[in-house]
Amino acid sequence: LADLDAPAPSEEGVEATKSQKKTVRNQKTKRSPRAPSSPAPEEPEGHGEPSGAAENGPVPPLKAPRKRGRKSKAEMLLLKLSQGLECPTPDPICMQKMLGSGEAPEGLETAPAGRPKRRAAKVALLYLQELAEELTSVYQPPAPTEGAQEPELERVQKKHRSRRKKEEETDGDDPVRDADFVPSEEVLLQAEEEEGSDAPLSEVSESEPEALRGHSAKISKPQCRGLAPNGFHNSIMAPVEKCSSLTCSVRDQNYSRWEFPDWIPLVHKWTCLSESEAAPYLPAEEKSPLFLIHREGIEEDGALYRINRFNSLQPHEERLDVSFFVGGPVWAMEWCPSPEGSAASQYVALYCHKSMDETHSVAGLHGGPALLQLWSLGTLQQEEGSANKVGLAYGVAADHGCVWDMKFCPSGAWEPQGSMTCMSRLGLLAVAFSDGKVVLYSLPHPEALQTCKRTQVKGRKSCAVQCIATLQVGSIQAGNASECGQCFSLSWMPAKPHHHLAAGFYDGTVAIWNLPTKSLLQCVRQPDGSLKLYPFRCFLAHDHAVRSIEWCKANSNFLVTAGNDRKIKFWDLRRLYEPINSIKRFLSTEVAWLLPYNGVTVAQDNCYASYGLCGIHYIDAGYLGFKAYFVAPRKGTVWSISGSDWLNTVAAGDITGELVAAVLPDLAVNPLNIKRPSERRFPVYKADLLPCGPAGPEGGEQALPKTRLYSEMVTKTYIRFRDTDLRSFKNFPSREPMRRMHTQEVKAELSLDRLQLESLHKVRFSPNLDSHGWLVSGGQAGIVRAHCLVGLASGVGHQLLLESRARFSSLYRDPPDSPSPMEHSPLPAE
Hints:
Layout: H1 11-29, H2 73-83, H3 92-101, H4 119-135, H5 144-147, H6 149-170, H7 210-219, H8 234-254, E1 270-272, H9 275-278, E2 291-295, E3 322-325, E4 330-335, E5 346-352, E6 370-378, E7 391-398, E8 403-408, E9 425-433, E10 438-444, H10 446-452, E11 462-465, E12 469-471, E13 487-492, E14 500-505, E15 509-514, E16 523-525, E17 531-533, E18 537-540, E19 546-551, E20 558-563, E21 567-572, E22 581-584, E23 587-592, E24 599-605, E25 615-620, E26 629-633, E27 638-644, E28 649-654, E29 658-663, E30 681-693, E31 696-697, H11 710-716, E32 717-723, H12 736-747, E33 760-765, E34 774-779, E35 783-788, H13 795-812, H14 821-824
Parallel strand pairs: 2-32, 7-11, 12-17
Antiparallel strand pairs: 1-11, 3-35, 4-5, 5-6, 6-7, 8-9, 9-10, 10-12, 13-14, 14-15, 15-18, 16-17, 19-20, 20-21, 21-22, 23-24, 24-25, 25-26, 27-28, 28-29, 29-30, 30-31, 30-32, 33-34, 34-35
């Protein structure tokens, strides 16, 4: 009402009033949200009086709060705003900068000394930034209000980097040596020196608050830094030690001491053959091709070797490798299992074709003479080879055609010598023949066989034996030959009581037998006392031949098959109406299912492989949904692959004559980000076919004769074996075998217009703890070689071996008056 009596303002006064109101309105809209909404208390005397009152009426001045000491920037800014001074509008960037620096504006909590708390604001800003980065799927440029955070964040990040750098410098590892293990600054600063697959799927950001980073460190896996004594990185050797302990514990649960007590070797069923009687069964080649051995780090004299049939070279003193000639191309081979800690002689059963140029049709059934060879390698240890010369123990003559596969019963078939039976049993061997039959043999110890047959002519190595059982597909109502074709692969049930045996046939059928069955529909006793067994379960697994079949070692309900239809199928034997997973890839030749993993390692033919993808792959069964892991590239067909549960390692032999081993990572987690995959694989040896003239080796590989006849090839060529020093892997990437292997993987050429005399057809790791570091391989030349991977030995494996020997001594080495272990062992129930 008082303003109504006031004189009307002039035009200049009106304009000034409008501009003043506009300024006050802008100040109100641009005021920081952190400023207090209520007016501040009165300012004490000595701090100046407010000025610039509005013309429409006096405005009560806003007072800053009473505080001791110097005012902060936020207080001064609020004071100027309350006084209505002509000062620039506070920029949100400045406010953010003040908040980032920890200076608390009006109303924020302060310390007892009057100083604002900085840590909470800083941690809150960093935490909000981390949440924004995690929730934003696509990176977007920061807004102007966020740009002011960068200097503060960079300062915090540099602080964390310098702290991390000091911690790494105090660590015992060499930073230069482990430079490739440290993540870049762009990646998260977790710096966890273990496999990328071992790291969590979502890692912590570099600028994460220390509280959250400490929590993440608790849930992450332990770090695996530095080098192992063998030269490999600890991250490579950690899964090896883990698998050794796991294998020992699983075998204690799933392996048996004594199985199939009725199937023991009897003396009257074994007959030693004379030379004339054994001649049709023996391989045709009496002398091996010329070959030369170059061992890494050892100066060789360059002498060429040619050994006679069934003879061997003396084991090397340092490298422990042995070589022997079997007489023909090797196509089937298997180690004989023995109990852990038995320290018994190790045996290898194998089959070779009768001649180097012999071919076999896989379409129809055919029989003929064949010889199964059992070779004694002596007592093999991890750090010492056989003291005696390797030799042929005996051979088993058969008339069922060529052999495509053979498998020993995993456990319960070995008994110590000197038991109360006439001939102590060495093992139960199942053999797949080309006439469509699977034959079971009960093999005795060679010493027991020689003792029982000492009245016959000495020096006879070939024997005719009556088999224990013959397994056929069909039924007792069908007396004709099987219509399923030849049998190409076998697999025993890995868990006790090992009563089931599975086989894959030419037409894609998989048959499973119950070996101790008493059913009249599945078991028929023959006039000679042997058994004829029929399967209790058959199903069509593939559209073509089943090339490989393998049982899951962790659970006997699961089976994997690989066929010529290029499919790999995983089966649950409780639901056979469809496979668990079916993967169509390349033409698979053999699969290996290691104990701790949910998938198989596959060897393949390169005829269907894409460029750059030929080689060895690990394929998940489908439960975890992992993509295929590329274990090792190969330029030619990989004929055989074998895995060692003790060493977590696979070995493969290919058509180029190279035997490669690869230490697998922990495949229980996603293997997409595996570090250093090329450092995990290494060559065991490489076989090269080189021309040889009358005066000795000459020329290069280009001068090889273009022929596929062995008689012409053997007179003009020789094989050079280049062995790798496997005692240590120190500085391995820079050594000559590794450089040669990488060169072969990139530039190797394969000549298919000549006989591949250097080709490797079968590779097998020893399943026994006493010789778990040994690997045998053989191929087209008929030369079988055994190598010891000493460098992969671990302290866990050595400790397990000592414990197993003590356990074996207490179980089997009883006083003479005590009963045999076979007699007091619990027998499986029917």
